[in-house]
Design brief:
Number of strands: 10
Low-confidence stretches: 69-73
Structural class: alpha+beta
Mean pLDDT: 81
Largest sheet: 6 strands, mixed, barrel
Radius of gyration: 33 Å
Strand order of the largest sheet: 2-3-8-5-7-6
Shape: elongated
Helix content: 55-70%
Distance between the termini: 29 Å
């Protein structure tokens, strides 16, 4: 019985192809919009996670706090010193690598080329903490770090803009007022979690940056890589206690420093992205409701057009449930066809938009099945009333209909 009903439904749809297509257009747009929004949202979430994870896994970033309030004279919090690095290495269990950073901006010049970039004064511990291998060359020697030699490790953006096809290892160029020898090239990282180009950097020994660029022994930040065997939260609490002790903060005095956990940042940003993705998907799903209303409207028109046909079927012995099933199957077939077309359209749209938006195309079978199933459910919900109306017709009145 169901097979025959399905064949009759398909034949009825074929009789009015244009009307059937326009009827399902709302479902097509709704399904395509929901899948596209959710798929691109998942790709954006994955991209954000990847960018933030490029900062390193299990990383704690320690930075001085903001300028103190009026009660403290409006003074800036004291900067970190090299002695703070030694204290963290010696007293914090679970600190795998500890790297201080002194940063500056300068223009690199080589031959007729120049490029404005950032200088990061640090140690080999910074590369260990971020698990950032070199593409070529070598890292700093202990003697170079201790003496603050004018050597540097550069990112791929510097190679592209200053050396232009020449192997930079062993070459010299000027960064600010300092002549620097390139000893290594970092592997390519691309865009960072905060939209910055991670390859646009010159890494130099900490002491030479403090001496020649910043003019002091201050550290802008301290990066602490936590061993996988330790709980990051516990290490963070120990680190906070040590910093308060070294900065003479007692009792209820507020912290004048901040500790950022890259994993917490990643979770927070990813959670916000998922909420926005869900909101966009919910907004797009409204068009599915609109499409369902369109199906109900056309099915009511179809019942009116076929009133006499329904009366004949009822008069020769068709059951009311069989008439209801026929019209209900027609509505479900219409919505399901719209769902299939919408899924195919969404695949094309997401595959085309993902590269443009710079996100990864992540095919999610679950959301595709859910969107298609919801479109079929729309056919059942909005097709039931017209089908029920057709099944409730009086055969005699139906036969009299012109």
């Amino acid at each position: 019985m169901f097979g025959i009903t399905l064949i009759l439904a398909i034949r009825e749809i074929q009789r009015h192809l244009l009307r059937s297509f326009l009827t399902t257009l709302g479902i097509v747009i709704g399904v395509a919009a929901v899948i596209t929004m959710v798929t691109l949202g998942n790709g954006a979430t994955a991209a954000v996670k990847k960018q933030i994870s490029s900062l390193g896994s299990n990383i704690l970033m320690v930075r001085p706090g903001q300028r103190m309030g009026p009660g403290s004279g409006g003074e800036s919090p004291p900067p970190f010193k090299n002695a703070d690095l030694d204290a963290i290495r010696e007293q914090i269990a679970g600190a795998r690598s500890v790297a201080g950073q002194a940063q500056a901006q300068a223009t690199g010049v080589r031959n007729a080329q120049n490029w404005s970039t950032s200088i990061n004064g640090t140690t080999n511990d910074y590369l260990d903490a971020q698990t950032w291998p070199l593409a070529s060359g070598r890292r700093f020697t202990a003697a170079e770090e201790q003496a603050g030699k004018s050597v540097c490790i550069i990112g791929n953006t510097i190679v592209t803009n200053l050396f232009q096809g020449v192997d930079p290892v062993g070459q010299r160029f000027r960064i600010g007022d300092v002549s620097c020898t390139v000893i290594g090239v970092l592997s390519t990282r691309g865009q960072g979690g905060f939209g910055n180009d991670q390859d646009d950097v010159v890494i130099m020994p900490l002491k030479v940056v403090q001496r020649r660029f910043t003019g002091n022994r201050d550290l802008r930040s301290i990066m602490v890589a936590v061993d996988e065997a330790y709980d990051t939260k516990v290490v963070q609490q120990s680190l906070s206690g040590l910093m308060r002790e070294r900065r003479n903060l007692t009792g209820a005095m507020p912290d004048n420093f901040n500790i950022f956990d890259t994993r917490q940042i990643s979770d927070a940003v990813s959670g916000s992205t998922k909420v926005l993705t869900g909101l966009l998907g919910a907004v797009a799903a409204v068009s599915l409701i609109v499409g369902g209303i369109g199906i109900m409207n056309i099915m009511l028109v179809s019942v009116t057009e076929r009133t006499r046909e329904i009366g004949i079927r009822l008069a020769i012995g068709a059951l009311a449930n069989e008439v209801l099933l026929q019209f209900l199957v027609e509505a479900v077939v219409l919505s399901s066809l719209g769902g299939i077309i919408g899924v195919l359209l969404a695949l094309v749209a997401t595959a085309s938009l993902a590269p443009v938006m710079g996100v990864e195309f992540l095919f999610d079978p679950f959301i595709n099945l859910v969107a298609f199933g919801f479109s079929a459910l729309i056919g059942v919900v909005f097709g039931y009333f017209p089908a029920r109306r057709a099944a409730a017709l009086n055969p005699i009145d139906a036969l009299r209909h012109e």
